[in-house]
Design brief:
5 helices, alpha+beta
Length: 153
């Protein structure tokens, strides 16, 4: 049974890497808005091919699909599919989630603290009693579990 080929385009100029990590050797470069075939997904990375060049790009650098919806959307099915997976930023297994969570490099550069937003979020925080009542109303039963002992280091 044949599978439909997954296609997309680069959102920005992309430096393709030889492997799915930021400290891999640089393989090639593709300009923004280059049509690509998506060959493989691995965590926060996609192996793509376009203009005769193949390599690994960060997930957020590629928009999937074709047509006006794909051109307008910063989100994609690939992001949803990979949201629960761990993207590795390098061979040292450092977890990188920035692109997966929808933040661009520009968003990070211009970010400013917003204490009022933090206070607003804290208003939704459940205390122990509220969480316990919610769990009981969902049919969960409370059970004491002993702490795991720390092994010898």
């Amino acid at each position: 049974m044949a599978h439909a080929k997954e296609v997309g385009s680069t959102r920005v100029t992309v430096t393709l890497m030889a492997g799915p990590c930021s400290d891999a050797k640089q393989a090639a470069q593709l300009p923004s808005n280059t049509a690509v075939d998506i060959l493989e997904h691995r965590g926060g990375w996609m192996r793509i091919s376009g203009k005769g060049k193949t390599g690994w790009a960060k997930l957020y650098q590629v928009r999937t699909g074709t047509g006006p919806e794909a051109q307008k959307s910063g989100e994609s099915l690939a992001i949803l599919r990979n949201i629960g997976q761990t993207g590795r930023s390098g061979s040292q297994s450092i977890v990188a989630t920035t692109g997966i969570r929808g933040l661009s490099a520009e968003d990070l550069k211009t970010a400013k603290p917003n204490p009022r937003a933090v206070d607003a979020m804290n208003a939704y925080r459940a205390n122990d009693n509220t969480a316990r009542q919610y769990a009981l109303s969902a049919g969960l039963k409370e059970k004491n579990v002993p702490f795991l002992s720390r092994g010898k280091d």
